[in-house]
Amino acid sequence: MRLTDWQRAFEEHLLAETPVAGTGFAATLLGGPTLDVETGLAIYHNAYLSRLQDVLRQDFGALWYWLGDDEFASLTEAYVRRYPSAHYSLRWLGERFAGFIQEHLVAEQSAPLAELARLEWAFTLAFDAPPGTPLTLDDMARLPPPDWPGLQVNLAPTVQQIFCRFNTVETWRAAKAKSALHAGQPLDAPQVCLVWRDQQICRYRSLEPAQTCALAGMVSTGWCFSELCERLAVSHGEGAPLQAVSWLKQWVQDGLLERRIP
Amino acid sequence: MSTSLPSLGYGLGLRSEYYQQILEQSPAVDWFEVISENYLVQGGKALYYLDAIAERYPLVMHGVSLSIGGPHPLDTDYLKQLQQLAARIQPAWISDHLCWSRGSAHQLHDLLPLPYTEESLYHVASRVLQVQDVLQRPLVLENVSSYVRAKADEFTEWEFLNALTHLTGCQLLLDVNNVYVSSRNHGFDAWTFIHNLPPQSIRQLHLAGHMDYGDYVVDTHDHPVCDPVWALYQQTLEHLGPVSTLLERDDHFPPFEDLLSELDKARSLGASALLRRTLCA
After folding, report:
1. How far apart are CA A179 and CA B73, in angstroms?
2. Phi and psi angles of residue A207, each rounded to the nearest 5 degrees, phi first
3. Do B89 and B34 contact (CB within 8 A), yes or no?
4. Is the minimum CB–CB distance between A38 and chain B shorter than 8 Å?
5. Per the database record, which ranges form the Putative DNA-binding domain (chain A) (predicted)?
6. A64-89 per-position pLDDT tens digit
C-alpha cells in the first residue's frame, strides 16, 4: 500500500464513528507483545475525539455547564464529525460551533444556545486579537479643540459585539460562578454586549439601546463627533454635547476606540 | 564519544499555568521550551508573557503542527508564522515531531506514526530540506510514542532516524519517555533504540510521565517521570555527555514548586550520570 493510501485509511479510521478499524487497514498493522492492533487503533481513535472535545469544553465552558456532560459530549461529537478541524491550531476549532448549533437543533432550542456560543467565542477572539492602538484619555486631553468636531473613531481590534435576544450575559455569569441557571429567557428588548480586551484582561459590558445606536453611528456609519452631537440633540436637546462627551469618555476609558484617520 | 552540540542545561515546558510564578520568582530554570502554536497569535496574554520571559531565559520553539510526514503540501503560511515567531524570540532551535498530524482532508491534531519505509524516508527527507530552507537552520525532530506500527516497515525507527539525519542534516530531539512507551508497546529494547542513534545529531532530550495500563503504556504527560525512564535517562547521558534536557508536563499540573523539584531531580541524576561518564572515560 502506498504511503498516501495508508494515511488516507488511517484518517478514515480516526474520523469514523466506531473505534474498530476496517479489516483492510488493520491488516497493514502490527501490534506488540501485549498491545493488539485493535487496542492500539482504539487509542488513536479515542484520543482524536477526546482531544477535540477537551478544547471545546475549555472554549465553551458556560455552554458545557448549561447542557451537562452528556448533552455537551453529544453536541460536540456531532460538531466535529460535521466540521472536522481545518486549521492547524486547535484555537480555531470552535469557529463554526455557534452556526452548527443553529443548523443542528430545532429553532427554540438552538437560538439561546447559539447566542451563548457566540458570546463565548467572542471572548476567545478578544483574548488574542491584535492590541491595536486604542485611544486613551491622555490622547483626548491632547486633542486640539479645532480637531474635536471632526473626530472619527473605529472599534479597537479586540472589540467584539454580540447581539443578545436572551439573558445570555446573565447565563454566562451564572455558569462562570457555577450557580443556578435561568438560561434561555428572552429579554424584554434586545441588547448589544461588547466583549474586549483591556491590557491582558477580557472585559464585557451590555449597552443600552441609545448608547448602542450612538456607538454604531460613530464606528459603523462613520459619524464624526459633531454629527454624534447633532443626532443626540433630537433626544437630549441642549444636553446632547454633554451626553456625547460622557459616552465618548466611557468608551475611551474602556479602551474600545481607535482614532480613524481620514 | 561526545555530542558536539552545546547544552542549554535543564529546562521546563512553558505553560500558561506557571506564567505569573515564573515572572515573580525568576526560578532556577536554565531555559524554557514553548509550544510554537500557542504563540502564533496577534496579541494577548500569551504573547505578553512570552516577551517578558524571553527577556530573562533562553527559549526553544517546539511545534506540533508541521506534519512533516503528511500527505498534504507543507503549509507555507504556518512556516511563515514560525519564522516570524522565531524572529521575535530568537529561539536556540526549532523542533517538531517525526510524524504526520494532518491528513489529506483534515487536521487530525495527533502525532501519528509513519511507516518506516524508503518511500516515507524520501518523502520526509525532501520536506525536511524544504523546511530547513525556509527556517534557515537545521530542523530538530522528535521521536513520537506509538501504539501501532506498519507491517510494511523496512527500517527500525532508529535506523529511519539515522538515515533521515544523514540525508538532511536535521537534528534529533530524543524523547526518552517516548522511547520507553514505544518499547513497551512494541516489545523492543529501549537502550538498543537510543544506543543506535547518531550522538552528534542529538540536540535535546525530553522527559515526561505516562499512564501505565499494564498491557500497554500511553504517553500522557500528566504524571511525574517514572523510575525506569529516569534510569534510561541516566544511561543516555552517560552515553552522550551533556545534552539539553527538558521536563514536560501538559496535564494534571502540579504546584510549580513540585515541578521545580522534579527538574532538580533531573539535574541531580544527570550530574551523577555525567560524573560516572567522566570517571569511566
Report:
1. 48
2. -110, 145
3. yes
4. no
5. 6-101
6. 999 999 999 999 999 999 999 999 99
**Quick one: pLDDT band at residue B4, thresholds 50, 70, 90?**
low
B2 confidence band (pLDDT: 50, 70, 90): very low
Q: Write out chain A residues lying below 8 Å of B37, CB-based.
A: 88-91
Encode A78-97 in three state secondary structure: HHHHHCCCCCCCHHHHHHHH
- Axis-axis angle for helices A225-236, A209-216 (nearest 10): 150
Residue A254 DSSP SS3: helix
Helix (H) or strand (E) holding B80, with range, is helix B76-89
Phi first, then psi, for residue B251 (nearest 5°) are -160, 165
Instruction: Name all domains of chain B by residue range, CATH numbers in brackets.
Output: 10-280 (3.20.20.150)
C-alpha span between B103 and B88 (Å, rounded): 30
Task: Tell me the C-alpha distance between B177 and B145, whole Å.
Answer: 8
Residue entry with cell 572515560: B281
Question: Residue A88: which of B104, B107, B117 has the nearest Cβ?
Answer: B107
